[in-house]
Amino acid sequence: MAKKKKMPQPVAKQAAAVRAPMSGTDAIVWVCLHLLVILVPIAMSNTSIWGGQGLPLTYDQFDIVKVFLQRGIMLVAVGAWAWGLLMKGGRVRFTKVEWLVLAFLGWVVLTSALSIHPATAIFGKYRRFEGLISFVNYAVVFFLALQIVDRPSRIRSLARSLVIGGVLVSFYGVLQFMGADPAKWGALPFETNRAFSTFGNPDLLGGYLIFPLAISLGLALSEEKVWARVTYWCSFLLVAFCWLVAFVRGAWIGGAFALALLVFAVIWAKSKLTTVDWSFGGAIAAIFGIVTVKSLASPSEVTNVLARLTSIFDFKAGSALTRFQIWEAAWGAIKARPITGWGADTFRLLFPRFKPLAYTQTAGYLSVADNVHNYPLQLATALGIPGLLMLYGLFIWGLVVSAPQAFARGKGMERLMLAAFWAAAAGYLVHLFFGLSVTGSTMFLWLSVGVLLSPGASVKEVKAPAWGLYAAVVVVTLCAILSFANVRYIVADSFYLKARVVDSGVQRVADIEKAISYNPYNDMYRSELGLAWQDLFISSTSGGALTDPTKRQEALSYFDAAEEALIKAIDFVPTEYDNYVFLANLYNQGGYYIDVKYVEDAVRIAKKGVEVEPFGPAIRVQLAFAYTNLGQYEDAIEAARTAADMDPNYLEAWAALGDASRLSGKFPEAKAAYEHALSIQPGRTDLAQSLSAVEASMTSTGTATGTAQ
Known about the structure:
The chain has 709 residues and is mostly helical. The chain has a domain at 89-182 and 191-464. 71% of the residues lie in helices and 1% in strands. It is built from 29 helices and two strands. The chain has helices at 9-19, 24-42, 63-88, 97-113, 118-123, 132-148, 152-177, 202-222, 226-245, 249-268, 275-295, 305-310, 318-336, 347-354, 357-363, 375-406, 416-431, 439-453, 468-502, 505-518, 523-539, 549-572, 577-593, 597-612, 617-629, 633-646, 651-663, 667-680, 685-701; strands spanning 90-94, 458-462. The protein has a two-stranded antiparallel ribbon. Helix 4 (97-113) packs antiparallel against helix 6 (132-148) and helix 13 (318-336) packs across helix 16. Residues 1-18 have low confidence and may be disordered.
């Protein structure tokens, strides 16, 4: 007679653990995860959307607020989870993937220490913030999702909250597309009526929307109640519409890939579609068709759906061309440091060194890439090839391990929510081959991997240690200290906003100094301090004020303060090209208003700037100004012509070339340079006067008309 088999003890414990209710501290973590997926996407500091008339809360109205909320919520969650485990014991869910996560974080620590600029590698570049701290935060999101989201009901609950955030973001994006944005914005750096919502940039919005796009469809297809199924379909329709009118090609590709995976999951599971599904499917196809046809009348290649789609395959023009040039620079940086990379989020500091001349000619002198627009290349430049392999290894490992549960043959709708998270993560990874990674959207990738691994994780019962109280107090205290630092981080940006937008003069300087005191690791704050002092210097020179000894001394003190601040900014981050332009400009102004000796300093700093960015037209224009002031006209002509060749649309380069040529007596070359400058900006009266003076000189001397070579 066969004996009845007993369930192995570890599996029995795991089954019991799955059925166990949440503890109080686990409930706090659970609430924090819901707040995370709802609040972070909708967070921004522009209060005018609610009818406010005042300023935003921060200068960076989008990313820094999302980072602040994300870190603050996770600090509360970590403190609660650690307190519960250390005081009362509990269950820890684990998989082998966590070892790779820990190895990856250790590698990021190493690369940060060896970085071209450790402060940037740790905190991340301003308005990107994807440094070491953000990677730690991603890992925390992953780990807490692994601990808490351990059963279908919780997966579904978190998915609902995620879609709520997605619907709110999408609704606002659709309002923008329709021209009904309730918020007040300045000049937008992209096409009018293009959705950017609470992310401030269509590219960032499009990447985020891949998650609510796939997960709202998963909820719709797996819901049994008709009214709820209709609600989820309406949510999907709204998110999909916003995803379309963001006009982001990479997000279209990633989202389409995610939806294709979800359709496959439905077919593979042998699920049956209802009348509601077919009805909404037809309605969505019709709406998308109408929007696409209507967009064909748009003269913009971006907001014309057909033109936008065909441009994906045009690699020799537009943004596709500049992307390849940025990738070329990234590849050069990888070859220079293939193992440890240059440090997380430091690409802006690398780009001037590695960018090709063609990029400046295509994108112009003001354009600088602070992101590779290709996440694998971004990671390889930042963390080296080992860092890239570790991070993508843990993503791929998580997807492979969870695939059998997410794509279960013949299981109907039972596993569809797992398939939705799986499809969203995979679609976002595809999008990252063409798009940007920022904390407000990439955290959902780590969250999704944690959710996918949680149902199959092993469970270990942990007893509270005898020293648990002391350890719990230490952890909670540390979380409180970090929360205080998190508040200081955002207060600093509020002072930076006041300095940039509201205050002037000495008060502006005071605001910037407060911003630096609250956050001394932001190099942009340091640069702004130098510019604030410089503006005070320029204002103090007006109306012949320098003839008064007292006012002259005041102007000199402003000049010295500006010089000191910009030198400190260069010392803090020696590879930031802009600071060399600022300081060279200051010295040129000092040479004009105070003493010609400062022009020699302008030449010295400009030459250093050329070393930092060989294909930077702005620093060569400053060099041309300095040589002109010294009477070295041939050197000035060479510097100005080089700048003009780098960017044929750079007005000041042609103006500098005209001035140097005129003063050296090369009137035909000067005439041609001024004419080119006026073709760029016809309204420049100073250039028109210079051109008239050159033409008069040519007439009086009988010089023949010529063309600048």
